[in-house]
Amino acid sequence: MRPNRSGIGASRNRAIAGLLACAAALVVPALLHADEAQPLRLCADPTNLPFSSDNPSQPGFYVEIGQALAQALGRPVAYDWYKSYFGKRTVRVTLLGKQCDAMIGLPRSEDFMGPAVIFSGTVAKEGYGLVAAKGQVLNSLDSLHGKRVAVQFASTPQNLLASRADIRMVTVLSPEEGMQALDQGKADVAFIWGPVAGWLNKTSYNDRYQIQLTEGEGLSWDAAIGFAKTSTELRDRVDAVLPQLQATIGALAVKYGLPTGQPARFGAAPAMPAGTTIGAGPGATQTASVVATETKGDAPGTEAVGSGKEIFNGTCAHCHGPDAIQSERKIDLRLLRHRYGDDMREKFWTTVHEGRPTKGMPAWKEVFTDDQFDHIFSFLLTVQSDSND
Ligand code: HEC
Fold first, then answer.
1. Using a 6 Å cutoff on CB, does residue 329 contact ligand 1?
2. Full-prediction pTM beyond 0.90?
3. What CATH number is given for 302-381 in this structure?
4. Phi/psi-derived region of residue 154, left when phi > 0, alpha when psi is between -120 and 50, beta in every other case
5. I need a labelling partner for 384 at 20 to 30 A (CA). Which of 140, 148, 301, 363 fits?
6. How far is the CA of 175 from the centre of ligand 1 (A)?
7. Closest to 291 measured CA to CA, from 310, 311, 309, 271
8. Which of ligand 1's atoms lies nearest the C-alpha of 380?
């Protein structure tokens, strides 16, 4: 289980305070629309621009949509700031843990935690984009012929281009790095997560680049507002006001540099090796599960170990050795239990999520889903050694 993060306790207290206030209000006989008077509680990440931020002068695309939405519903808005990537685990703790009523920007897909999570209509379309110097027509794989293309590690674009000998891939770990590769002349095109590319283009690159949105399997998602499955009434009310918010949402997309325009359709990629992220921003991301390797149910059986091993050997083995067999102690992951004992899982979790960038261990939270991390961990559990030498 994921450890509690600071803030959960505080917000529970806030929730209790809210309940007490509500109980007090019930004494007032004239209070007919108790629900209307209560704030619409939204969960959001405080450090995930262009999507959300707790800085009131630059709140972010989703936060401003939330404000417009609350206004349309005639309710004040309150935030539960949860500093984390938007993985399923976060949704479980915050939204399904009843710390908030809604979460803006979840991928509108049954695969994403359905039926526990239900969705509003589509709020925005988000996808990978082809970023390049202005004045080029880039709208198909063929139009990338002969070019050096920066792709995010284990992303759908990387997978799409893998079969093309005439396109040279430059692998990067984040949209930020993709933009840098472009800027430093190491790539001609960056095929990276569009919203973040647009935001960076606007804020760091003077709108120097054009961004062609793409769509297709694993390339684009409908972002929607997610609710716990018990909140059908609220969901229906949100759906009823969404149409009148379209113009506002469009203006906000422009404000935050999100790429607009007709997306170019790409064919389906071969089997995805890994999870793909939505809203992969600096420090935070929400993870959409588009993986075939996911196991059903909770039992971390041999299936989980097998899929974990596969991911490990495909991605981690370069540095940590095939099957985790590694003679250099410092990066020998068979020593995790020996090294950390009961804290082993916690250490694993923070290290794989955040990485240790200064020590050469990349952050993987934008690359894999929590379930995939669970699988890798299940595999590592099977290779722990007690060796003391
Ligand atoms: C580019 C090389 C590289 C890759 C690829 C890599 N790691 Fe690492 N990893 C490192 C280095 C170097 C360290 C040691 C950092 C330090 O000295 O603190 C490390 C440390 C770790 C640790 C902490 C070990 C400890 O004892 O504290 C874990 C857990 C870990 N890696 C898991 C993974 C997993 C899982 C993957 C694949 C998803 C992976 N790593 C991929 C280089 C890599």
1. no
2. no
3. 1.10.760.10
4. left
5. 363
6. 21
7. 271
8. 35
